[in-house]
Design a protein that fits this description.
- The chain is an alpha/beta fold and 443 residues long.
- It folds into three domains: 182 residues, FAD/NAD(P)-binding domain (3-Layer(bba) Sandwich); 123 residues, FAD/NAD(P)-binding domain (3-Layer(bba) Sandwich); 116 residues, FAD/NAD(P)-binding domain (3-Layer(bba) Sandwich), CATH 3.50.50.
- Helix content is 24%, strand content 29%.
- The strands form seven sheets. A five-stranded parallel β-sheet has the order 3-2-1-7-18.
- The protein is globular and about 65 Å long.
- The N and C termini lie far apart (63 Å).
- The chain binds flavin-adenine dinucleotide.
Length: 443
């Protein structure tokens, strides 16, 4: 009889693990339990469904439960795993559809329970009109609310708050973005935040930074946000104040967490318990610049985690190479990409770090339609080792970040960057690529 693999959570990490394991070892029995009504979807597309650019949530589905079944993978939606006994390798599952509890067994278990929104500890968040955006169900609720809404307040100017600000503006709402720190995208340095603020304001978003949100006012339905700087009227409030790894089940069964609070794994995504793996936003990664565990809850990372766990369960030898912290998002006309450490983060980590920030263009100055493009490089004084960087552009030019990410993976220096043979043609780059101009300036 084939071994039995059970996956808890069926989105990016879980679906990848299940599909990869079954593909590599068709003898495996593969079962996925998913608490919500949806599996295998691209949560990253949710803001674009809200904006109307993608015509419906179903477009985000990568594979339906039926398609999984045809692959030989049993997917059970609205099934929540409520307990795991790792000694007996038995799970207790609550079927929300039938309202019954039953038990199942596993030889291999993948914890892919993801992350959950952090609700700020202020009065009034339980009222109608207050939303988070994490899952398809969240997307459904917001889509229903949007036609009746006029004034939105978004708490938190991280990438999700910024993407949704754009979506809400595209739906004709008045939008106020409220951020406790002094700039949008507060985990990065000020110049990028300044560019973002300008872009947001140009598109009619009111940006309040350095504000403390004190309460959501209303009598059962939200009416306004009370802040240290004044009251913002709002009939729709989005809480985009961060997420936390969903580790409750893991902790209850004795799976060890790492220093970040997410599940600790080895390079093969194995946890401390025999036969138990973790993948996706619930798990840590190894950060190749910091050389320690790091929590990077992103979709591409979740897919790689899942694929690694699935390969290993199928009997292969797969290793996840770690992360350097690369990300990109769109805010109206700007594409903002970052990798590695900001100057602030690098200094906080004890590096003797410096940065340069330059403005160049995404094409030759004479090429019609070429636009400004900005590069930040963060590097270590003395060794000139690259520590991080950002590229802000009016489009795909921001994907230059991938060259920096590749260098960070290999502990590259400014000299390594200057030696790169980068692509050039007038529609795509000045003859000196903006990354090279920044590196020259740094030297
Ligand atoms: C609006 C938005 C935009 C994003 N944009 C990007 C982007 O542009 N780029 C990028 O890289 N990333 C992006 N992300 C992040 C990306 O979506 C996540 O990293 C990814 O979804 C993580 O997948 P996961 O499988 O680890 O976890 P999740 O997507 O959180 O899925 C975990 C699943 O486990 C289920 N579950 C939990 N506990 C149980 C249980 N006990 N029993 C059964 N099921 C359980 C949950 O119901 C959930 O469906 C975005 C996220 C959001 C919300």
């Amino acid at each position: 009889m084939g071994k039995r693999m059970v996956v808890i959570g069926g989105v990016a990490g879980g679906a990848s693990a299940a599909a990869k394991a079954k593909r590599e070892n068709p003898e495996l029995e593969v079962v996925v339990y998913e608490k919500s009504g949806f599996v295998s979807y691209g949560a990253c597309g949710l803001p674009y469904v809200l904006s109307g650019e993608i015509p419906g949530l179903e477009k985000l589905l990568a594979r339906t439960p039926e398609e999984f079944r045809r692959q030989g993978i049993a997917v059970h939606t609205r099934h929540e795993v409520v307990d795991v006994d790792p000694d007996l390798r038995v799970l207790t599952v609550f079927d929300h559809g039938e309202g019954r509890t039953f038990q199942d067994r596993y030889d291999y278990l993948v914890l892919a329970t993801g992350a959950k929104p952090l609700i700020p500890p202020i009065p009034g968040t339980e009222q109608e009109g207050v939303y988070t955006l994490r899952s398809m169900e969240d997307g459904e609720r917001l889509l229903k609310a949007l036609p009746g809404a006029r004034r939105a307040a978004i708490l938190g100017a991280g990438y999700i708050g910024l993407e949704v600000a754009e979506a809400f503006r595209k739906r004709g709402l008045e939008v106020t973005l409220l951020e406790a720190k002094d700039r949008p995208l507060p985990h990065w340095d000020t110049e990028v935040g300044d560019l973002l603020r300008e872009e947001l304001e140009r598109h009619g978003v009111e940006v309040w930074t350095g504000v403390r949100v004190e309460a959501l006012r209303g009598t059962g339905r939200v009416e306004a946000v009370e802040t240290s700087e004044g009251v913002v009227p709002a009939d729709l409030v989005l809480l985009a104040t961060g997420i936390r790894p969903n580790t409750g089940l893991a902790q209850a069964m004795g799976v060890a967490l790492g220093p970040t609070g997410a599940i600790a794994t080895d390079e093969g995504m194995r946890t401390n318990l025999e036969g138990v793996y973790a993948a996706g936003d619930v798990a840590e990664s190894f950060h190749r610049v910091l050389k320690r565990p790091y929590w990077l809850p992103l979709g591409d990372v979740a897919n790689k985690h899942g694929r690694t766990a699935g390969s290993n369960i199928a009997g292969q030898e797969a290793r996840f190479a770690g992360v350097v912290g690369t990300a990109i998002f769109k805010a109206f006309g700007l594409a903002v990409a970052t990798t590695g450490l900001s100057l602030e983060a690098a200094q906080r980590e004890g590096f003797r770090a410096r940065k340069v920030f330059i403005q160049s263009r995404d094409g030759a100055h004479y090429y019609p339609g070429s636009q400004p493009l900005w590069v930040e490089l963060v590097y270590e004084e003395g060794t000139e080792r690259l520590l991080g960087g950002a590229v802000v552009a009016h489009g795909h030019g921001a994907l230059r970040i991938n060259a920096l990410a590749a260098l960070l993976h290999r502990e590259g220096t400014l000299e390594d960057l200057l030696g790169l043979d980068l692509a050039y043609a007038p529609p795509y780059s000045p003859v000196w690529d903006p990354l090279l101009i920044a590196a020259q300036q740094a030297r």
